[in-house]
Specification:
The complex is a heterodimer of chains A (115) and B (111). With 115 residues, chain A is an all-beta fold. Chain A has strands spanning 5-7, 10-13, 19-24, 31-37, 44-50, 53-57, 65-68, 75-79, 88-95, 105-106, 110-114. In chain A, strands 2, 4, 5, 6, 9, 10 and 11 form a 7-stranded mixed sheet that branches. A 4-stranded antiparallel sheet of chain A has the order 1-3-8-7, with no helix packed on it. With 111 residues, chain B is mostly beta strands. In chain B, a hairpin with a 6-residue loop joins strand 10 and strand 11 (100-101). In chain B, the strands form 3 sheets. In chain B, strands 2, 5, 6, 10, 11 and 12 form a 6-stranded mixed sheet that branches. In chain B, strands 3-9-8-7 form a 4-stranded antiparallel sheet, with no helix packed on it. Chain B is built from no helices and 12 strands. The chains are: A mainly beta (115), B mainly beta (111).
Chain lengths: 115, 111
């Protein structure tokens, strides 16, 4: 499978714990995005990387959230001191420079449940 | 800021019925418009797109026309199938890198 891969697919954690999600984009895609989707809502933009540079961050990305893409390939999204309001589906997407800015290839998501 | 509004769901139709899912947008400039689809257990997939006024995007029998005068991008299909059951998201992008999505419309097609 050469699509966008996310791991883990499901994570249940207790409030206050840290969690980390990993995203492996399609190999030739140099742009990578993180979105968050809560039940019954559309995805909301969190952050965007071009190669290893984080070029845009949403105000939704509080100080407890950090995203990295150290070598311009896979990316991680870490949430520290999780809160119940962090429960959501975290989506990763990627695209090549030849795609339009809105033409994204999404992974299946990592579902977070904070108890 | 930019926003997208979709018709409330869920929508339930019989096979071979005509489908319309309404989408309107608010944007200060001239965004590109998209429909994404999420089938059960799968990730979001791009269904179709339009980048300027009066463009018609089409794919898999679905169509949507970019109407600047009504700020709309309604999704239509002439004859739906059970396999079209999914959640459909209208979205826009303008300048910046972030897609702005509507809340999604769940579609169920009964045989």
């Amino acid at each position: 499978d050469t699509g966008v891969s996310q791991d883990p697919r499901h994570k249940i954690t207790k409030r206050g714990q840290n969690v980390t999600f990993r995203c492996d984009p399609i190999s030739e895609h140099n742009r990578l995005y993180w979105y968050r989707q809560t039940l019954g809502q559309g995805p909301e933009f969190l952050t965007y990387f071009q190669n290893e540079a984080q070029l845009e961050k949403s105000r939704l990305l509080s100080d407890r959230f950090s995203a990295e893409r150290p070598k311009g390939s896979f990316s991680t999204l870490e949430i520290q001191r999780t809160e119940q309001g962090d429960s959501a589906m975290y989506l990763c997407a990627s695209r090549a420079g030849t795609n339009l800015p809105g033409e994204l290839f999404f992974g299946e998501g990592s579902r977070l449940t904070v108890l | 800021g930019d926003s997208v509004t979709q018709m409330e769901g869920p929508v339930t139709l019989s096979e071979e019925a005509f489908l319309t899912i309404n989408c309107t947008y608010t944007a200060t400039g001239y965004p590109s418009l998209f429909w994404y689809v999420q089938y059960p257990g799968e990730g979001l997939q791009l269904l179709l797109k339009a980048t300027k006024a009066d463009d018609k995007g089409s794919n898999k029998g679905f169509e949507a026309t970019y109407r600047k005068e009504t700020t709309s991008f309604h999704l239509e299909k002439g004859s739906v199938q059970v396999s079209d059951s999914a959640v459909y998201f209208c979205a826009l992008i303008q300048g910046a890198q972030k897609l702005v999505f509507g809340q999604g419309t769940r579609l169920t097609i009964n045989p």
